[in-house]
Predict the structure.
Amino acid sequence: MDSITQAALGATIAGAVAGKQCNAKVLLVGAALGTLPDLDVVLDYGDAVSNTIKHRGFSHSLLLLPPFALLLSWLYCRFRPDAFWNFKRVSVLTLSVLVTHTLLDAMTTYGTQLIWPFEGYFELRNIFIIDPLYTVPLLIAIIVALFSNANGAKWCQSVLVLSTLYLGWGFTAQQYIANRVDQNLAQQGLPNKQVMITPTPFNTVLWRIVVMDEHYYWEGLASLLDEDKDIEFIARPKGAWPLEEKPDTLRGLKAFSHNYLNYREENDELIVSDLRLGMANNLAFEFIYAKRDDSGDWVLIDAPKRFPSPRGFEHLNTLWERLMGDQSIDANLTKQTLGYNR
């Protein structure tokens, strides 16, 4: 999730644990702890792909965070002994904030290395990386807690229940859409082995579907408000890696994306795109791996570079119309808003 959400979640959890001791200082500490795991973004692993796939690694590991939380708690109690903030209470607060950070990240589409140093990216994809309906209640609870010490903790506790229910709602909505997708794939004779269902920006009502096959992939949209349960899928060429040599970063990108990858040539550059994050022409992670030389042969570049693909939100009004169930714009929305008019 975004940094504001993680800070807000950390502050709210801290306020809930603090009880009658909930105050601005406690909320600030919770916010700081909530952003701590994401400080790994300052590390440079040498190239754009490595910086992407190694984020949410050791700093998000459920194998490392508990002992780290206990160490922080021991250090705090060692140098700031306090009758109320004893080791047990401090460790509960610290561990709760750090663990919920990584668990929330695992509910987005990006992928989180929950068991680092062991391999594996985990994601549920039941919430978009920015969702106001999740974040705003947390911010409200923090504001109330700042100006109402007596009821601040109760507000934090209540909003945490509400936010958890919202995550459950996202998962339930995803399963409803998944059942609809299964029916449509069977009716349309499309493959059903590698299917991704993820929310579109800022909501859990309109969902994007990506279906992979050996040579093609299909994109479609489905809203909970659709009257017609048919889904229009648009076929795209998947492309293929054209070189015999496969760099380590490509293998890493395949693992990170679960092989939801597209390969294309543009302006004599070989571009590899992660199809999961964003919406086609607004994909978040695209990388330049090779360029054609004077003879027309592909030559790997020394280090993959980020492709400057547009990642704006100029089509949000159209997405809103689609969210509300206007399926008449599906073909135009998928082909133009989602891109691939190349």
User: Anything to note?
Assistant: Strands lie at 194-199, 206-212, 216-223, 234-237, 261-266, 269-274, 286-292, 298-306.
